[in-house]
Design a protein that fits this description.
heterotetramer, A: alpha/beta, Rossmann fold, seven-stranded mixed β-sheet, B: alpha/beta, 10 helices, binds thiamine diphosphate, binds iron/sulfur cluster, binds magnesium ion
Chain lengths: 580, 287, 580, 287
């Protein structure tokens, strides 16, 4: 049977243009009708280091970057020596034979070498070192029997009209690679269902978050650069004028969230983004948003901790930082989107929830989800906008009850500029009108009532938010539990297990807070065997589940080495557990 | 000229009798009345401190945020609704201590807001510790042997950092204070009004009396408010003579006027969401 | 039977000198051999508002400020009208009859009025308005049959040698009050065991923390003023030269903790203090201390949240803020001292733990514990100092393994200035020598090993830290569960219950993290009925207990109105639960 | 003069080839060698950024903390052990952006530390966003339409805030750079050395070439380093001519010299704990 899926790894150093080559290949595949999933493993260094990107493409929905690659494109000797020997039998290695030495003794049996004489192939087009990537791309598309037109179209769209010389040079070297491959090597037996009319966008999670925000009417975005949230800032800044979004890079994350609160208070849908260390700086103001009942959306994309930790590596280690953010008890909603597509919809949903409940909504992503690329099929900009309760003048100027005690805790808000509805929003606790009860007007009874009012929002929100559903057969041998970015690898695991005769289902916790304790308890107490899969040291979700349901998940697969889960790893552990 | 009572509320100011901040409250109310700005169109933002309680004592929209972070909140509001008159009011600890970074960056950005600092050279609400403007040698609860660092000079910092309007006022000279606030609000761009506003409870050194002996008005002195070098020189005066008035004023495009996201007007008035066509265009970038 | 305990409430406005009058009375009582407990309820306003302080004194250990007062000293009409009508039968009210009008119709039956003609009594000594407090103090001591010498000695010590005129004036008015009382009213039947030779220090929790730090060799203290931690700064600043402690008020709490880390890294025992909002700003650096393995002690004293909330009111609402502080998983120790005395010893212990395990230790207090005054019997400055592992030169200059992988996770540290032991402590993750593994030297295996090394400290610390013991009869009808400042009121509750024929025991969680899961599980699973008593909205300790043991405590007494628990309130709820 | 190799380590600097920070590393090593300071007695503290990786490439004690917070860490260490030579090294984002407040307050306190800022006018490590010193109009990933705010001028800010030594160097002039660092370390009090240190990867505007066309040395120009007004004037020069060298130097008692807690010498060398007598005395205050 011909292969319908291929895994390509590109390995080199920072500065070698790996990400853009990976992206080009992903787009070529997408324009050929394939689904794609790509992950880039890099370090906190601008030049050098060991970077590798893995793209997986095929004609069915792809849930991860895959395990062992079918092809390696090695961009330097170090990487050839690092990745080459591990390449599985039946795979192939493309490399610049001018600079890199590989021979059959260095690789496993049946690993095919594809040496590319880069200098000869690219001499006509100038001496740009990243040309080697494009040559290899050309050669690879030939070996995969892809339509070269797609390569041409991607190169054109990448470099745009203004750079005709660059476009031509790139097409030239790609063609040279393609032709060289065609005259030297056989194509492999790879024939997915190509479809040159369907092209799915290839998005990262951060790009989906940005688009989701724009769709939801986000009018303000603020950030201080921080991996892996920075690309939201980049998208927003680039589309500020086009989408009518005020985008402000601030001096630190403290000002970022406070500014976002100011924008939210003034009536704009407002969002900000950061990672763990920046979120730590924001925590004080999270409580401010809650007590002033100001809607804001905060994206925090996790990376390897503690502290600066592994700034370019993935981790799901900030769950309790987010849950515990800021002093005191206050209402907030925390959502962990699970896929790139979900990043889009969860972001749009976050804006609605923030305004409907007038509170901070925190979206938790992680480096893997924020930065990996995926083809997405289903993006609809018509996301529905619900701004919640906005007051209308009550003719009672100066006596507006901004914090009126209501059944569900939500009170109509007025926006600066509205006639007759002036009020002061205060971080000190206050009564219905906003007058402080922390000072001379101290009042224990009012304090209890206003706390209860704010916290009631959580009960009502919990009722509104859909409880988690078990994916897969209810009576499966094993229940996989996860949150955030592990969704995909767990989906894939369940499929692989099924092929191995083990039934699995999957509980994905999307609403981290408020927590659907009853639904989760019900699902888990009916589970035969449970495996919790998390990208952190301590099993933070498992702790939360125990806190909220009392259920202790004994079996966990925890990963905190900075790399995402690979399907094989999860499958292996799940098989163990299922058979235990 | 509107009636000052338009800007009053029932809630009584909780400051100690004699606190300099009363004059600042009145000064803001007078300035708004003089400029005929509707209370609905004013947003007064503060942090935490005795002085930062001010928004609660004034009829307008108010945001009484957390300690040191008034400026980011204010500029966030201003950026999405540049039609608002945004005033930031707070203390020396709030603004020149914990919040100094935001102040400095707001000045170089030249947001069109007015920043009024009730500078009492002490931490009032926390009962009397040294602040960034407490003079060298002064004893306080946190410096019982005397402060051993130079104070912040807000005027010279503002001057070198790009504030486009820099003035000082004194709570003991209420009409002049109101005038400074009025000029500050009228100024298009970042305006700083540093108000010497005595804390009668915890600062026993920089009293009304102490100031009265030293204070003079720059305008009585032929000071040229367009000359930065002169302004910087004047900013060093303190011990023997203390100038109040406008040190410096200049024109520079405001941040809001250059912000690309505001090209179509205040974003709070724009329709929400993305049309299907624009959405398609945005997605195409990724195909 | 004569009373052996008395409760006195002083009520007025901020600026009326209530705290110092309360303190004077407390010291008079202490110098008379009594135990004292005093609590001051005030607001975030410098003048005005409604302030009242309640002192309870008696010849047995006192565990709280008590419930209904025996005496009220009303300093203005407002407060007389606020507190007067609630005064119980048999109690008495002192007041300035020149300014305040009270008559019998305003108070319950058998409430005795003690009008004091302040002007007449104090006219000789000047017109200082706080004189009325001292007159009342004099009168009260007479009614309580206290020895007036103690009043004289306290006034002398309070105002010192330098202020002879003030001392004389104060003694004069106190005497006038005493004499007036003696010629107009009967003393009450109050006769505790007076003992004029024993004088216990009257300390607040913050003063005990300060003394504990000094005893433990703290050489550096930094803070940014914040209620209710500020008085530590004040004590430290006042004793800096005497105790050889560098004390630095910084520009914010971020710099406070980073500076403390710098001091700890350089080899000083270093501490800092704040409250919830300041702690939020510190959270980023908590992780820094952990990953650089720098010993520091952080005091956070909780107050009413969220956000600025109720800045002068007590609450226990920051448990998850502290547990969740900073991104990622890392080792830390969290201790919640339970009494003023324990504040002293827990602080000293914190320094030892911080250096032994090279990590941040967080002491959680709250406004009630930090600011209430109590007589303390047992302060021993010889606390024992253990600095943990300090390296000696290994002759291997430049190759010092600062983070050597060890059995218990603790590696010998070198201090700047030591010969041949240079190294770099980094917030990026690193190998044994401190070299970064976040950049070109990326290494997944080392990452896992260094994470495991750091986290091993927690297992070893848990073994070392004494597990909680159940106080009281093991088979009691009810088990009271609490943490921090509620210790005292729970002790008192248990005593009162016993008198009412209900046996109670008490589980106090002192080590919040690492958590003694096994011990707590064992204790609670044997409990008949459990009542969780906490000063917060959500039952944060109960959540932690469930997270760590799976045990759900169904009955809770939660208080979040800003005031501390009162014994009656807890007793009432405990009786209900015990009988349910 | 010690051998520069004393200050070297095996770990290779990971900066991009051509990065200005190499010259700074070398400059520090040369200065330490010239001053004959033992590596054990040096503590180099940094934050986060390409530049902040520097401590790892140098033989000395080092603390590579979190973004923007190097100065507090450094001054904490200095205050407990004033015998240490404390150097802070970092980037413009780290120091003039997120960390600016600490820098300003450290200057007025006059801690005896040396602060070296590798000012490349860009956020390098996060791949090229505008920094607080990026020039108006420059495009970057976060400002694709160009920066619309004035940059921070670190020299003038340092001058008005009380830094007692203010100099600028250029990575393209390595010996002069080393000299500036040497003078900074020798200076008793807070010294700022702002180094124009090109980011060859992300700042395509302020290149070596661009600087070479503009830079001149103040010392070649008869500049008087004792005159604050002259220094402030010189600090404004940028577009056409860019001065390097010492702008200003003055004497002022350091913070450490006045700190009461240090009266008995470095606290790290003092015995720990409290004698029973002192304990008794302390308790008596509460009886
Ligand atoms: C993060 C944080 N730290 C500390 C405090 C405590 N605090 C409240 S007001 C204040 C200082 C107020 O001084 P200033 O701004 O000068 O105002 P003033 O009371 O003198 O008018 C401080 C430190 C706080 N609220 N938040
Ligand atoms: C709290 C926090 N926010 C953001 C970051 C991400 N970050 C790392 S380095 C850096 C900027 C570095 O710029 P600069 O200090 O100028 O150093 P350079 O890389 O240019 O030398 C930022 C924003 C971080 N590490 N921590
Ligand atoms: S303490 Fe000082 S600043 Fe605060 S209200 Fe009183 S006088 Fe004003
Ligand atoms: S990105 Fe710029 S600052 Fe960073 S190492 Fe490269 S050249 Fe230097
Ligand atoms: Mg002040
Ligand atoms: Mg930089």
């Amino acid at each position: 049977m011909p292969k319908t899926e291929v895994v390509v790894r590109i390995a080199g150093a920072a500065g070698d243009g790996i990400a853009s080559t990976g992206e080009s290949f992903a787009r070529v595949a997408s324009r050929s009708g394939l689904h794609v999933f790509a992950y880039n493993s890099y370090q906190s260094v601008i030049r050098g280091g060991f970077v590798w990107l893995q793209v997986r493409a095929g004609d069915k929905k792809i849930y991860s970057q895959g395990d062992e690659p079918d092809f390696l494109i090695a961009l330097n000797q170090d990487e050839a020596s690092r990745h080459g020997p591990a390449m599985p039998s039946g795979s192939g290695i493309f490399y610049n034979s001018d600079k890199i030495k590989i021979d059959n003794s260095m690789v496993k049996e049946r690993v095919k070498l594809y040496p590319l004489p880069i200098k000869d192939l690219s001499v006509k087009y100038g001496q740009n070192p990243v040309m080697q990537n494009t040559v290899a791309l050309g050669a690879l598309t030939k070996i995969l029997m892809m339509n070269f037109d797609m390569v041409v179209s991607v190169i054109k769209d990448t470099f745009g009209d203004k750079n005709k010389a660059i476009v031509d040079a790139n097409i030239g070297v790609a063609q040279a690679g393609y032709d060289y491959a065609s005259s030297h090597w056989e194509s492999i037996n790879f024939s997915p269902k190509y479809d040159y009319d369907s092209r799915r966008p290839v998005l990262t999670g951060n790009q989906a978050i940005s688009l989701g925000a724009a769709a939801a009417g986000c009018k303000f975005y603020s950030a201080y650069p921080m991996t892996p949230a920075t690309s939201i800032l980049h998208w927003m800044a680039a589309h500020s004028e086009k989408c009518g979004i005020v985008v402000k890079q601030m001096e630190d994350e403290i000002s970022v969230l406070n500014m976002t609160i100011g924008a939210g208070f003034a009536g704009a849908r407002a969002m900000c983004g950061t990672s763990g260390g920046g979120f730590a700086l924001m925590t004080e103001a999270v409580g401010l948003a809650a007590i002033t009942e100001t809607p804001v959306v905060i994206v925090t994309s996790q990376r390897g901790g503690p502290s600066t930790g592994l700034p370019t590596k993935t981790e799901q280690g900030d769950l309790f930082q987010v849950l515990g953010a800021s002093q005191g008890d206050y209402p907030k909603i925390v959502i962990a989107p699970s896929t790139v597509e979900d990043c889009f919809y969860a972001t749009a949903e976050a804006f609605n929830l923030a305004e409907r409940y007038q509170l901070p909504v925190i979206l938790m992503s992680d480096l893997y989800l924020s930065e990996h690329m995926e083809t997405v099929s289903n993006i609809n900009f018509n996301v529905g906008i619900d701004r919640g309760l906005i007051a209308t003048s009550n003719g009672n100027d100066g006596h507006f009850k901004r914090y009126a005690f209501t059944e569900n805790g939500v009170s109509p808000r007025s926006l600066p500029g509205m006639e007759g509805l002036t009020h002061v929003a205060a971080s000190d606790d206050h009564d219905e009108t906003g007058a402080l009860i922390s000072d001379a007007l101290t009042n224990e009874e009012t304090r209890v009532r206003i706390m209860d009012k704010r916290m009631r929002k959580m009960q009502y929100a919990l009722k509104e938010l859909p409880p988690p559903k078990l994916l897969g057969p209810p009576d499966a041998d094993i229940t996989l539990v996860g949150w955030g970015s592990t969704y995909s690898v767990l989906r894939e695991t369940a499929d692989v297990l099924a092929k191995n005769g083990v039934t699995a289902n999957h509980l994905q916790i999307r609403y981290i807070w408020p927590f659907h304790d009853e639904a989760v308890e019900k699902i888990l107490s009916n589970a035969k065997r449970i495996l919790d899969v998390e990208g952190n040291y301590s099993g933070q979700l498992a702790k939360l589940i125990r806190m909220e349901t009392g259920i202790k998940i004994e079996r966990k697969l925890l990963k905190y080495d900075g790399e995402p889960f690979y399907p094989n790893q999860v499958v292996k552990k799940a098989m163990e557990v299922a058979k235990a | 000229m509107r009636d000052v009572s338009m800007y009053k509320v029932e809630t009584k100011a909780t400051w100690c009798p004699g606190c300099g901040d009363f004059a600042v409250l009145r000064g803001i109310q007078m300035a708004l009345a003089a400029l005929e700005i509707n209370p609905n169109d004013v947003l007064v933002v503060s942090g935490i401190g005795c002085s930062s309680n001010l928004p609660g004592f004034l009829k307008s929209y108010g945001f009484h945020g957390i300690h040191g972070r008034a400026i980011p909140v204010a500029t966030g509001a201003k950026l999405v609704n540049p039609d608002l008159n945004v005033i930031v009011a707070g203390g020396d600890g709030d603004g020149y201590g914990i919040g100094l970074n935001h102040w400095v960056h707001a000045m170089r950005r030249n947001f069109d807001i007015t920043y009024i600092v009730m500078n009492n050279q002490i931490y009032g609400l926390t009962t009397g510790q040294a602040s960034p403007t407490t003079e060298k040698g002064q004893r306080s609860k946190s410096t019982p042997a005397g402060v051993i660092e130079l104070p912040i000079n807000p005027i010279s910092m503002a001057l070198v950092t790009g504030s486009t309007f820099v003035a000082r006022a004194f709570s003991g000279d209420a009409d002049h204070l109101a005038k400074m606030v009025e000029l500050g609000i009228k100024h298009k761009g970042f305006s700083l009004v540093d108000v010497l506003s005595p804390c009668v409870t915890y600062n026993k050194h920089n009293t009304y009396q102490w100031f009265r002996e030293r204070i003079y008005r720059l305008e009585d002195n032929g000071h040229n408010t367009k000359n930065l070098d002169d302004a910087i020189k004047k900013s060093y005066e303190w011990d023997a003579k203390i100038p109040i008035g406008v040190f410096y004023e200049t024109d520079r495009t405001t941040y809001e006027d250059e912000e690309p996201g505001l090209k179509r007007g205040p974003v709070v008035s724009q329709p929400l969401g993305i049309s299907q066509e624009l959405g398609k265009e945005l997605l195409e970038e990724f195909e």
